[in-house]
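Please check this protein record:
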Amino acid sequence: MASEMIGDLKMDGIGTAAGGVYKKVELNGVCKVASDIEAQLFDADGRIRVGGQLTAAELDLDGTLDVAGDARVGKAAIDGVITVEGAYAGQLLRLNGMLTVGGDCETDALEGEGAFKIGGLLNAGTIDLRLQGRGTAKEIGGESIRIGKGRTGAWQSLWQRMLPSFAQELLADLIEGDRIELDHATVKVVRGDRVTIGEGCVIDRVEYRTELRKHPSARIGEEAKVNG
């Protein structure tokens, strides 16, 4: 952290705290941080609102978190709903719930289960997501991208209560990567080296360099094998 730390911050119940630079932040209940906040560990349990930018080496969320500005996080474990009005940047994001980012979302790895809505570009080295709701982004890029419909069974009723209005589907204009594996996706253009188009996909155009595999139920408008 560039600024001097001022200790730890702990809140329980209902309250508001000032922003600042902390070693450890623990928020339990209905809590608001009035402005920008930095922490090595940001541990949130309940309904949390940050009125500015959030910067944390580690984020652990159980509940809901709204960030009015950008979020810069090293490692994040999300169990619940996180909404970032600006952009999100990080290293590892483990998702078990709903991710909403107003701008671009860039992270080294994004994995887990749930739903997402990205206003701009979703970019990660590795993306491995099982959808229990709708996943939307204008563009998705990465080295290894695997996005498809999540598991069914006993857990599905719980997801339906969390995300009642969303079908388990992926919507995007462009998906580009080296290894791409999709199912239940509607995409204008998919571009990659080794591409697998699975069950329930509707793709306007697929461009691939080495291999294209497709499920019998998948609908592809155009297929093109390209060089380089």
Observations:
- The longest strand covers residues 105-149.
- The helical segments are 154-162.
- Residues 37 and 210 are 46 Å apart (CA to CA).
